Task: inverse folding
């Protein structure tokens, strides 16, 4: 009987131990499942957050790229638009070695001084201007000229409205074609350079459509590009 009692107690203890081991294994499995689920949730949330971050970075990069494209277009537009035009006689008058141009003519000179004006002709040719000298007062015959040098009296002739009244002391009155945008400064430049030539000054006055050079250089554009890249990196 004692042996039976001992064996029964041992059996009960072994059953208790087995149940404890099973419950421990079950608890570990459930804990592992919970841990795996929690880790998966954390990774999912991190991925979600990273997707938002990537989306924000992509949007910032897109905005940055659009700004760069806009700046590139504006830069090249202003670079071409701001470049000043040199208002030289060649803008409207034929050169001494030219005979015909669709948009240019020779410079008409009407001589009423009663004397030789070779010094004036020489000064104009020194500016590389093709000249034509007339000694008549009929301005209507000079319709094909852009501008004229006249040393008698000022008159208007259509369609160009261009003349210079030249006195014996070389006092000029300019008439110019209003359809030519820069005709007045061109004529003033011609007269000014004539006075310089008569004083034996070899330098010439150069006139530009803009008083100052307002060029947007490539260096400035590159610096702005670097600044925006750094700003994007900080963001």
Result:
């Amino acid at each position: 009987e004692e042996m039976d009692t001992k064996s029964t107690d041992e059996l009960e203890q072994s059953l208790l131990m087995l149940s404890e081991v099973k419950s421990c294994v079950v608890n570990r499995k459930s804990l592992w499942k919970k841990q795996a689920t929690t880790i998966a949730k954390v990774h999912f949330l991190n991925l979600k957050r990273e997707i938002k971050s990537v989306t924000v970075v992509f949007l910032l990069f897109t905005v940055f790229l659009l700004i760069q494209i806009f700046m590139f277009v504006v830069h090249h537009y202003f670079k071409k638009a701001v470049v000043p035009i040199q208002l030289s006689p060649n803008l409207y008058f034929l050169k001494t070695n030219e005979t015909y141009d669709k948009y240019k003519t020779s410079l008409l000179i009407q001589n009423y001084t009663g004397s030789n004006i070779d010094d004036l002709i020489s000064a104009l040719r020194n500016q590389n201007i093709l000249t034509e000298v007339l000694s008549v007062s009929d301005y209507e015959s000079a319709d094909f000229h852009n501008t004229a040098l006249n040393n008698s009296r000022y008159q208007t002739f259509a369609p160009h409205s261009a003349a210079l009244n030249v006195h014996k002391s070389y006092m000029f009155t300019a008439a110019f074609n209003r359809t030519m945008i820069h005709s007045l400064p061109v004529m003033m430049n011609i007269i000014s350079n004539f006075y310089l030539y008569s004083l034996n000054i070899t330098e010439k006055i150069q006139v530009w459509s803009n008083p100052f050079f307002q060029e947007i250089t490539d260096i400035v554009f590159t610096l702005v590009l670097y600044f925006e890249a750094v700003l994007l990196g900080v963001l």
Notes: Residues 2-81 form the longest helix (80 residues). Residues 105 and 145 are 6 Å apart (CA to CA). Residues 89-139+151-199 form one domain. The two ends are 85 Å apart (CA to CA).
